[in-house]
Amino acid sequence: MLHQKYIGALGAVALSVTLAACGSTAEPEAAKPAASNSSTATALASSSPTPQATLLTKVQLTSALLPLSRMPAGWSAEGDDTPGDKTFCDYRQPHKVQVQVTRTFQKGGGLTATVAAVGIRQYASTSDAAESFTAMEKALETCHQETYQGSVLKYSPMSVDKLGERSLGLRIDSDGSTMLQQFTLDGPVLINVGTGGLDAEADTATKLLRDQVDRYEAAARK
Length: 222
What we know:
Elements: H1 4-18, E1 32-33, H2 39-44, E2 54-55, H3 58-64, E3 75-80, E4 99-107, E5 114-122, H4 126-142, E6 145-148, E7 151-158, E8 166-174, E9 177-186, E10 189-197, H5 202-221
Antiparallel strand pairs: 1-2, 3-4, 4-5, 5-10, 6-7, 7-8, 8-9, 9-10
Helix pairs in contact: 3-5
């Protein structure tokens, strides 16, 4: 599991849980406005679509992920990863992710290493993304702790910047380490950023989330 040798079960489990998807289908052939029956999505998919209404290919989404050059000093790239299918307390997501991309970074080494992950999950429409975000919110209202692969994960709400349409934050504690996760709903995508380790910093996660949202929206405008 990812980074288990650096920060124990937390890095392995938390990154898997928070980047999880319910599966994937074929990616869109080309960027185009998403269709939806909801009033919000209808406005986004109008004749003059906003960037947040555009569907991107996997190549485009991968290019939209934060590169090492946009990370603060001291980080190294760990590569792009394929998340597992674990969700918070095994809640069921209402829609399948169409395209999903993630990238991880590391700072330091040994037991004091810090990891960071950025990810973008794109759904078939803005309404599918919104419903998936709502399902995660509702699951975390009652999901405060679970045991996964022998490790106890404790979940606590965390305040976050108000980005995109909606945002939420989550603190995950396990085995003496902490993972700080932030999520933003932005049109047809859910953007997530997490930092974890013995000395995880909320300020770092907040800055990375802002930068990742800006980078995604810039890509969607092209």
